Amino acid sequence: MRAHIPAHVTLVCVSKFQPIDAIRTAYEAGERHFGESRVQELQRKVSQLPADIHWHFIGHLQTNKVRDLMKLRPYLIQSVDSEKLLKAIDAEAAKLGIVQDVLLEVHVAKEESKTGLSPMQVLPILDFSNTYLHSIRIRGLMAMATNTEDETEIRRCFMEAKNCLNKQNHPSYPILSMGMSDDFRIAIECGSTMVHIGSTIFGARSSSPALEKPFGHTLKAVFFDQDGVLYNSMPYHAESWAWAMTKHGLPYTAMECYRNEGRTSTGVIQEHHRQMYGTDASPELIEAIYQDKSQHFTEMTGGFPGIIPDVDKVLRYLHKHGVECWVVTGSGQRNLIDALNETFNHVFTGIISSFDVTKGKPDPEPYLKAWERSGFKKEECLVVENAPLGVRAAKAAGLYTIAVNTGILPDSDLWDEKADLVLPNMLALLEKLTAILSV
Question: Residue ranges per domain, the chain?
């Protein structure tokens, strides 16, 4: 691999999900730059591997994870995509008495699921940072190309990122981080000075574990999340949450809604209020936001958002083969919960909602309660989720978890939470379930 990387280009070995021994082997071969995407995983690896490793944080970073990440003194944070995140990093760096190097992530791909600043936002962010932030140092840009085999489109993405960096015309921004295993050669041709290589170094990560082995004929229950898995409601929830939160002085985006999907409504409001103000929201504010959000949702949908394409086929198939179907949701919207059985022809054995638990996702309590009530062994159950926090909850409950990505987040957000399988739609799920039950 090293022979294909010019001397002026830094090779970052993408070590996320890789075992300690594999990373140590790469280290002993002379590699020093490694990339991780989860703070918790990085904490474990930092404590077990040599101190002279340069750790790059390459995943999406939430502001509530900044403090823990900064304690690890990362060499470079590559995925900074907002002024809010810059401020959080700067504040924690100031407490530690250090200057933290970061890259701004610029969005150049033809995929809304990828995150990042638009090229037009880069200069204002740079000006803001240089003027007001003193414990952070922007070292350049990071970009990802459209996920396609069309080399013309890949080259367009990389050149747009290169041109965006050139427009800044500043010697303090020497890094252009772009290019992965499949496209790093094109990235280097277009001016990349840093590439991320994972599968070529460590081997391909299995994206399709053998489902037949853990289940075979013993699959007896499937626990379905509600919003984004059964109901096609997430676009409306996202717009309603953004509208209601912003109305009450808590600016909120659709992307933040998707990344917090699965929390109870109180949990969503409290988490965001703590991030913004460092205090709990009052019960009165929580109630006002929730009422406004619910009313806005109802006005947009008429109370019913429709169902996810082809999920009814999945439910009918499982019901026909004697597999119990359960709903496990953080929702507290009575109209949607009460309509579940009528909408889906009374296929559900049980429903666990926010009214049944004291802790919502990402705590495992909702899935543990469903499993306990089902009476089956854990190896006889699986979860179908669409949200990172839902996947985290299910995995913490010790359940095999299939993520069906029906929203706007990248698949990596679901893999990062250790989903056992990530699928693009319900027909793909039906195919996998058919394989399980036909063994």
Answer: 2-202, 212-232+306-437, 234-301
Q: Give start and end residues of each alpha helix (H) in 169-233.
A: 184-189, 199-202, 212-215
In the DSSP assignment, the letter for residue 117 is B
Model confidence pLDDT, tens digit, residues 278-331: 899 999 999 999 899 888 888 888 877 889 999 999 999 999 888 999 999 987
What is the pLDDT at residue 207?
Answer: 42
CATH class entry, domain 212-232+306-437: alpha beta
Mean of pLDDT values over 8-15: 94
Q: Token pair 């407490």 is at which residue?
A: 95
Token duo for residue 197: 């290589």
At 11, give phi and psi (nearest 5°): -95, 120
pLDDT (average), residues 226-251:
90
Cα 175 → chain centroid: 25
Q: 234 φ, ψ to 5°? A: -60, -40
Q: Are the C-beta atoms of residues 416 and 259 closer than 8 Å to each other?
A: no
Query: Residue 438: how many CB atoms within 10 A of its CB?
Result: 9
- DSSP, collapsed to helix, strand or coil, labels residue 375 as coil
The class (CATH top level) of 234-301 is mainly alpha
- Would you give the DSSP letter of residue 227? B
Instruction: Look at residues 364, 285, 395, 381 and name the one whose alpha carbon lies nearest to residue 325.
Output: 381
Domain 2-202 identical in fold to domain 212-232+306-437? no
Q: How many CB atoms lie within 10 A of CB 228?
A: 23
For residues 333 and 258, give the distance between their C-alpha atoms in angstroms, rounded to a whole number. 17
Residue 89's pLDDT band (cuts 50, 70, 90)? very high
CATH class of 2-202: alpha beta
76 forms beta bridges with 56
CA dihedral 76, 80, 86, 90 (to 10 degrees): -10
Q: Judging by DSSP bridges, how do beta strands 194-197 and 10-14 pair with one another? A: parallel
Asked if 371 and 395 touch (Cβ cutoff 8 Å), the reply is no
Segment 89-113 shows an average pLDDT of: 90
**pLDDT at position 165 over 80:** yes
